[in-house]
Design a protein that fits this description.
The protein is an alpha/beta fold. The protein has 14 helices and 12 strands.
């Protein structure tokens, strides 16, 4: 089968699909990944075909307010929609669409008659179990959670409206609003496979048929060892803690670096700073600055992880069985931070705007020295090891592509 995976956003919105794609390729499928040019090396390093999507996700790492986020998202989606159809070839057998690309990919699937399936990294369907992931982690009550979920989808449709109108025109399709297409897909029980663990988000009982939680898709990485300077630092003393904000906090590097070093020294801990989009940097016998390294190799050797609570980093810390201190910045990050805290695998979140060296030092001290956090993280790691997200997708594809009357129960 010739499969096209379309994904866009930050590194954390794209990297998991390299692991999913590599798993599909090992099962005998031809896999291409359509994403923005910044992530071409990730795709090619996984042995997958890269196809370019016309947008640049960089520059949004400093956005923290909800209004700013909506404006940035609308500009990104409008740019993404231009030339989106060029990523698909005539011989594509299946479209796999992320939450970001699905509202565009649905129209491409309609125009070409190509089957499609959702492969989402966040739960977007309304449920009474929790509020929309973009509004935070505080429950509003079951009825209000569902209403808020529907409202969040309507707001998302507004972000896509211009891009959808232009795309349908270019495809020769009759006019149809973004919200009209979403309703059509929901009524048809369009299948969506969610790439996160039930340890963090059990499947809501009030979800419609076709929505499943299958487990994480781990980013592909062939690296077998860490850089020598990092190995030397790890071996030179007690387990350090990791501090990084991924693609967030652009322009905040100097402030965050000084804050991080002060917090580490107040807590009496060694630390590794990951530069990321913020540009964290510090020197000293007790601090090391690194660039991108595989979380799967580094995290199991740490005492704790301080991170922005992106979905991928949250899962990587749980997989390693180590406690976390979360500093959510925007979007779905407060949701994942709340989930980690509810599990007992992380301290209470520190909102980015409230971050101080003293608060960070206090949370780090508790995360490292109170064993309840480590035990909860270890228990969650055991559960994650029983899940195989890529294998679950393969099983779902066999079901979806089986002839009517011959589909397994």
């Amino acid at each position: 089968m010739r499969i096209l995976i379309a994904a866009a956003g930050s590194r954390g919105d794209v990297a998991p699909y390299t692991g999913l794609g590599a798993g599909l390729r090992r099962a005998g499928h031809d896999v291409a990944v359509a994403t923005t040019n910044a992530f071409a090396p990730l795709v090619r390093d996984a042995g997958l075909e890269f196809r370019s999507l016309p947008a640049d996700p960089r520059g949004s790492g400093g956005v923290t307010g909800k209004r700013e986020l909506m404006r940035a998202a609308a500009a990104f989606i409008t740019e993404l929609g231009q030339g989106f159809a060029d990523a698909m070839t005539d011989d594509t057998d299946l479209l796999m669409l992320s939450a970001t690309t699905a509202p565009l990919g649905w129209h491409l699937a309609e125009a070409t008659g190509t089957p499609s399936v959702g492969v989402y990294l966040q739960p977007t369907a309304p449920t009474g179990d929790f509020p929309p992931v973009v509004t935070g982690s505080r429950s509003l009550g079951r009825r209000a959670n569902r209403l808020a979920g529907r409202f969040a989808l309507r707001m998302a449709d507004r972000v896509y409206e211009q891009a959808v109108a232009e795309l349908r025109l270019s495809l020769g399709l009759p006019a149809l609003s973004a919200s009209g297409m979403r309703r059509r897909q929901e009524q048809a029980n369009w299948p969506v496979l969610h790439g996160f663990s039930t340890a963090l988000v059990p499947r809501p009982s009030d979800w419609r048929p076709g929505l499943e939680v299958v487990g994480n898709w781990w980013p592909h990485d062939d690296a077998e060892r860490l850089p020598p300077d990092l190995e030397d630092f790890l071996g030179a003393g007690p387990r350090p803690v990791f501090i990084g904000f991924g693609s967030m906090a652009a322009g905040e590097g100097q402030r965050l670096s000084e804050l991080a070093v002060r917090a580490l020294r107040l807590a009496g801990l060694r630390g590794i700073l990951q530069s990321g989009s913020a540009g964290l940097a510090a020197d000293g016998d007790d601090v090391l600055t690194i660039g991108d390294v595989p979380h799967a190799l580094l995290f199991p050797r740490l005492a704790a992880v301080v991170h922005h609570a992106g979905a991928g980093t949250s899962a990587a810390a749980l997989r390693a069985g180590i406690p976390a201190v979360t500093v959510p910045v925007t979007a779905d990050q407060p949701f994942w931070a709340g989930r980690l805290a509810a599990l007992g695998a992380a301290t209470d979140p520190i909102p980015f705007r409230s971050l101080t060296a003293e608060r960070l030092a206090d949370s780090l001290g508790r995360a490292v020295r109170q064993q309840t956090y480590a035990r909860a993280a270890t228990d969650a790691a055991r559960r994650l090891r029983t899940e195989d997200g890529a294998a679950q997708v393969l099983g779902a594809l066999r079901h979806l592509t089986a002839p009517q009357g011959h589909r397994p129960a």
